[in-house]
Amino acid sequence: MAPFFGVAVTALALALAVTGGAKVLPALLLACACAVLVWSLVKVCRSGGSTDLDALLARSDMLAKPITTKHGESGGTARFRFGLSCMQGWRRGMEDAHTAAVDLSQTKSGGQSGNADHALFAVFDGHRGSAIATFCGANLAEFLVGASAYGNGRLKDALVEAYVNIDQHLKRQQPGEMSGCTAVSLLVTRTELLCANAGDSRCVLCRDGRAVPLSFDHKPNLPSELRRIQRAGGFVFRGRVQGVLALSRAIGDFPFKQRMGVPWEEQAVTCVPEVQSVSLDARRDEFAVLACDGIWDVMSSQDVVNFVRQRLGRGEAPQAVCEQLMDACLAPRPLGLGCDNMSVIIVDLR
């Protein structure tokens, strides 16, 4: 039993880090759950897998059989068409959400309407619950249109403002919420693409058949991310903030945003997105793909571009291609990569 107690002590330390040490009972419960799961995995390894797999899965976040039902949407304008799809997969719950607003003139906020030439697409990959991701999926477009910078035509600043405002709104309205989400969004105008990203979901552009990154994954070990985490009083252990969170930017995740005297935008886990923009080239730009890490953990950016390009090239609809991509990334068993929730949006620019 000595190894079990070692696992339990480690789990308790991590749980106290998550709760800030202020809520001892929740920390103990979380520690016990983690210790039991890890110890079960140790026993499976030692016994050559003889422990009943179904019993183990019942204590984990995995199902014995994946849920492969797809939920999709499609549409477009004279300038582009899009398709999206999401799938729960092996996980016990669905924590992803998305935004697909093809005409921002239909979105109003604070007496301000969006531009009919603007479309917004986004993927939100939730963790420790779906509440934050669900709210973002339903409301990011409104927060973008309501940003003061949007009315002034400063679209990069408007995207940053929208992310910060929605994060602070959620903190005020749901201060005890523990969940969080990544947020990758693509604002499509007549002349350019603007991608805002916080977390490790990703957006790539296919230009002349080549994958052009429009976002970069925010991992805690990146030097610029690590410096901010440490300045905010945090630490990185085994590639995770406080030994818990495997990404360094997110909306929500309020237990990691409690450092007194540190501005909201500079907390250990920040909601501030990096924004990249590219001018549209009608001759070379083919499509853009937004997806959560359930896709990118399995395929590289170029692999995804090759997969999508081949199928769009033979006339398949973007939504159908999204569904095929998720099926291709789904793991055959509830172990390793390909077991996460999956969400994909394809914006066909031709």
UniProtKB/TrEMBL annotation:
Protein family membership: Belongs to the PP2C family.
Cofactor(s) it depends on: Mn(2+)
Organism superkingdom: Eukaryota
E.C. numbers: 3.1.3.16
Entry-linked InterPro entries: PP2C, PPM-type-like_dom_sf, PPM-type_phosphatase-like_dom
Protein name, entry field: protein-serine/threonine phosphatase
Signal peptide boundaries: 1-17
SMART domains: PP2C_SIG, PP2Cc
Assigned keywords, A-Z: Hydrolase, Magnesium, Manganese, Metal-binding, Protein phosphatase, Signal
Matching PANTHER family: PROTEIN PHOSPHATASE 1G, PROTEIN PHOSPHATASE 2C
UniProt domain PPM-type phosphatase: residue ranges: 81-349
Keyword Kinase: no
Native species: Neobodo designis (Flagellated protozoan)
Molecular functions (GO terms): metal ion binding; protein serine/threonine phosphatase activity
